[in-house]
Design a protein that fits this description.
It comes from Methanimicrococcus hongohii. Pfam families: FmdE. This is Formylmethanofuran dehydrogenase subunit E domain-containing protein. InterPro entries: FmdE, FmdEsu_dom, tRNA_methyltr_O. The chain is an alpha+beta fold and 206 residues long. It folds into 2 domains: 3-111 and 146-159, Tubulin/FtsZ, C-terminal domain (60s Ribosomal Protein L30, Chain: A), CATH 3.30.1330.20; 174-204, Wheat Germ Agglutinin (Isolectin 2), domain 1, CATH 3.30.60. 36% of the residues lie in helices and 17% in strands. The strands form 3 sheets. A 5-stranded mixed sheet has the order 2-1-3-4-5. It has a two-stranded antiparallel sheet with strand order 6-7. A hairpin with a 2-residue loop joins strand 8 and strand 9. The termini are far apart. The structure holds zinc ion (2 copies). One zinc ion is lined by residues 177, 179-180, 182, 198, 200-201.
Length: 206
């Protein structure tokens, strides 16, 4: 990739860029944005053009999209590992320095708002009228503004990583699966009776 293909450096990436990628602004996106900024500060991170920054998330929520946009940990580069464990927790690694932190949302940070919770159900099931939908947007925007104006240190506890830095992404040789005849990454195949079989065929040919 030539240098002029790299779109923007990190200092120019904003919450608006995250919205453009994610499709909307929401509390989750703002929380992920706050985590990315805090990690950037704690670990001296730059936007990851390759795999210099790695993140393991413990949620698959809207938060993850901010991390992708702000730090360049993306689904395709092998430096984003998404776990669906339902925790607002993110372990960031700086491959250059070897430093890492696990940011865990403080247990008392998220205060549920009964009015918002009641409206959310209506809005997402399409049962809200215009006034209720507008009120929900207003409350949601307020929550986003609150998050964006709160320092990361008040949102997240800084903890030790629970696991070592993941290995770098591998580039595979391709082989031909003997069952389907399709080209497939060698290291992603399963060995059955001395033959390397693609995962689809392993799961469907039993
Ligand atoms: Zn969202
Ligand atoms: Zn196959």
């Amino acid at each position: 990739m030539s240098e002029n293909v790299i779109l923007k450096n990190i200092s120019e990436r904003t919450y608006e860029d995250a919205i453009a990628f994610h499709g909307h602004s929401c509390g989750g996106l703002a929380l992920g944005y706050a985590a990315a900024l805090y990690a950037r500060e704690l670990l001296d991170l730059n936007y990851s053009e390759d795999e210099e920054v790695v993140v393991i998330t413990e949620t698959d929520s809207c938060t993850v999209d901010s991390v992708q946009v702000i730090l360049g940990c993306t689904a395709g580069k092998g430096n984003l590992f998404v776990n669906n464990w339902g925790k607002n927790a993110f372990t960031f690694y700086n491959r250059t320095t070897g430093k890492a932190v696990r940011l865990m949302m403080k247990p008392d940070f998220f205060k549920s708002n009964p009015e918002m919770d009641a409206l959310r159900g209506k809005v997402f099931s399409g049962k809200a009228d215009e006034k209720e939908a507008a009120r929900y947007r207003e409350l949601s925007n307020q929550r986003v503004a609150d998050i964006l104006s709160t320092p990361g240190s008040q949102i997240y506890d800084v903890k030790e990583p629970q696991q070592p830095i993941p290995e770098k992404a591998k580039i595979f040789d391709n082989i031909i699966c003997p069952i389907c005849g399709e080209s497939v990454g060698d290291a992603r195949c399963v060995e059955v009776g001395g033959q390397k079989i693609c995962q689809f065929c392993v799961q469907t040919q039993k």
